[in-house]
Amino acid sequence: MITLVADSTALNLSSLCGQKYFYEQVLSLVSARLTPVKTVTETEGGAYLNKGDLLHTFLRIYYKLRKRDVPFNTCRELALEYGRTYAITLHDVPIHVCEHIARQFSAYCEFYRHENWKIVEVEHYFAKELYRDDEIRIIYEGIIDLFVEAEGIQGAVPVDHKSSKRRQAFTNMGNQFKGYCWASGANRCFVNKVGFQKTLAPKERFQREPKHFSRAILDEWKSHAVYHLKELAWRLSEDVWPMDETSCDKFGGCSYRQICETPPSGRGFRIFRDYSIRIPWNPAEAADDHKREEDWLDNKLV
C-alpha cells in the first residue's frame, strides 16, 4: 500500500502545474535570485521580510502566555523579547523592518487587550486520514495557528493568522480553511488579519474574518481533494510531471519558468546556477522548537 502525506500547499500545487509541483515539492528548489524565504513588501519601504514568520513568532509566544493566564503586559513584553531575539537570526531582514513588525504586533495586542477569546491550543499539528483503499492511504496534515473558544460559538474554532500589506478579503474558496475545518471537525474558522499599513487606523489593520462551511461543502472539498491527491500519488509513482503552460504568468509569474524555458538538456545547469535547495518543513523539528520555547517561557516565569 502507498501512503501519501500532503498538506494544503501540496494539494494546491497538485491541481495546477505538475512541473511546478516537482520543482517545489520534490526537489525543494528556491530561486537564488530571491530571498531564501517567501516575502512580502513593507508598505512604502521597499524592504522585505519573511512572510508571516516573524509576526507568527510574536503571536505564537503571546498566545502561549495567554493560554497560561499570564497578565497582559507580561505576555506582550515577553513575546517582544523572544521575537526580537529570533529576528537577529533573520539575516536577510533589515533591523528597521523587524522593528516595524514588532510595533505592529504591539499595536495588535493593545487593540485586542480585552478580547473574549479563550485560548485552547497554540500551533496545533494534525495528521488525519483523508482516504484509504486497498492501494493507497492519504494523510492530510497541517498546523493550525490557534484553537479558541469564543462567546456565542459552540466548541473550539480554528484560527489562521494572515499578515498583509494591503486590505483584502479572503475567499471561501481554497483548500487551507476548508481543510482546517474538516480536520478539526468544526464548521467555521477565523482569519486573523494583521495589516502592516502605516496609514490605516488599528480597526482597519486588525480584523477577524469569519468563515463558515456547511457539511455538504466540506464533503465536496474532501471528494475533490482525494481526486487530486490520488492523481498526485500516481505522478509520484510514475515520475510524470506534465506542464500547465497556462499558469506560467499567473500570480506575478512562476519562479520556475526559467527552467521550463530552457531546453531539457540544459535544465540541470540552469538549476545548479540559479536555484538552491530549501530545507523542507519537518514536524519533528517543529516539536523540538515548541519544547525549546516552552522551556524558555518556564525560565522567564519562575
Task: Provide structural commentary.
With 302 residues, this protein is of the alpha+beta class. The chain has a domain at 119-224: Alpha-Beta Complex (Lambda Exonuclease, Chain A). It is 44% helix and 23% strand. It has 11 helices and 10 strands. The protein has helices at 8-14, 18-26, 53-67, 72-87, 95-111, 175-184, 202-205, 215-238, 257-260, 267-274, 283-300, and strands at residues 2-6, 29-31, 39-41, 48-50, 118-132, 136-149, 157-164, 188-195, 206-212, 275-277. Strands 1, 5, 6, 7, 8 and 9 form a 6-stranded mixed β-sheet that branches. A two-stranded antiparallel ribbon has the order 2-10. β6 (136-149) and β7 (157-164) form a beta hairpin. α3 runs antiparallel to α4, α3 (53-67) runs parallel beside α5 (95-111) and α4 packs antiparallel against α5 (95-111). 27% of the residues are buried.
Concise synopsis of the structure shown:
This protein has a domain at 119-224: Lambda Exonuclease, Chain A, CATH 3.90.320.10. 44% of the residues lie in helices and 23% in strands. It is built from eleven helices and ten strands.
